[in-house]
Task: structure prediction
Amino acid sequence: MTNEALQNLISTWIPELEFTEEKSQFLNITVPPEQLIPLMTQLKSNSETNFDYLFCLSGVDWGKELGVVYHLESTTHRHQLVVKVKTEDRENPTFDTVCNIWYTAEFHEREVFDFFGIQFTNHPNLKRLFMTEEWDGFPLRKDYVDEINMIIK
Amino acid sequence: MDTTPIINNFKSEEYQINMGPQHPATHGVLRLLLTIDGEIIKKVEPDLGYIHRSIEKMCERDSYQQIVHLTDRMDYLSSHINNEAVCLTVENALELEIPERVKVIRTIIAELTRIASHTLWWGVMGMDVGALTTYFYGFRDREMINDIFEETCGARLTMNYNIPGGLMFDIHPNFVKRTKEFIAHFKTKLPEYDLLLSNNIIFRKRMEGIGILTKEDAISFGASGPVGRASGYSCDVRKHHSYSAYDKVKFNEVLKTEGDTYSRYQVRVLEMWESLSIIEQLIDNIPEGDFFAKTNAVIKLPEGEFYQKVETARGELGVYIVSTGTKNPYRMKFRSPGFSNLSLLNHIAVGGKIGDLVATMATLDLVIPDIDR
Result:
């Protein structure tokens, strides 16, 4: 499916999605956190989209907002898509987990939790993956400061 | 005399043991927390982070030329391909026109890297299951490739031969000759691999039918590389998202359908033949011309998001850059093949024995720095 056809189809499911192709090689969808699971479930189960392969899941700190970026691909149709979800709540950022939809998300979400402090509700085993349990702060956040281990320009 | 069977006096109970962080079968500092009942595995929980260097955070303060050097240290057996991934991302973002010569040389060296990685894997995998000779066979053949790298790139393992825009320097005058010598040598040696191990009845009894991964699970777990292809999942990035000179060569994507440990083994051995064929098609046709395209001394990527995937020896490596238009990336993420392949270990090891876990893990071909980036 072309990006245009994807956009036409997906916008009929959930009205409040934002679509953009600017400054990216993929079609980008920004979804409100409460619509994340309905959208993702539909993206995978619908036979026309069939996004069965989550090839990258990254946390990003955009300064004001924290969020997660999902890179999706369909192994049958070979089209690709990016879904973004953002929140301005830096104290307690929380999204729903997608690890029931794609198993690979379990480890990737633990990594995002470890480095960005983003919580995933219903995650089966949400604890730090690389860092020790007692580590203070979340290193990949932009406001993280560690005077001993970081060179601050 | 009391004839009550002794077995009734023992209870079955679960307990936990550690495998690693220093264990020969984990190939690096990986700790697995095993929950076992007798010898049957109930749960495998990997404990990561022993050698985490936070490369993604370091990238945020480095220039794009510097970042290339950090990627060597992720999957050190595919160092050239990791470098290539970053360079391709930067080149695509800048919309640079790369000389054909660069593309062909990159592809040849990437395939040599793949053979070097697979021969090393073949050697240590044999050793994991108790065959010491394979180690010497594997390292003997890999040595020739390392010598070629040393002559052309100046290093044997972490080569740093790629720079954004092309190559660090042109190939050594001996490169073509020595690569051809290697192809001729390896074509006589690769059948020995099959004689020694692939058709060995002890080895096959050990490997067949364990650690089974279905195609659906392989996709859902994000398996890639030989691990995915052994389950019948066509996931070769070189085929589906062609880059460098892979669109100019003919090669088969090796697919197996069993999804067990032995088919993962077979995929890697057969892939070495395909790599040899790719090198043969290119080695006499290296185009003349420049070995780099000019870039600014300070590289600034335009504002936006860029993603590039490549096929390393272990599977799909993804590079995701968020740029705000400065000389450093705003956010850099590496989607490493080993990370996703490790996440499915619990799924395929449960119900098997500890000995099977060693064989299964050997065919996942984990490189720990690739997981602990």
User: Anything to note?
Assistant: The longest strand of chain B covers residues 40-47.
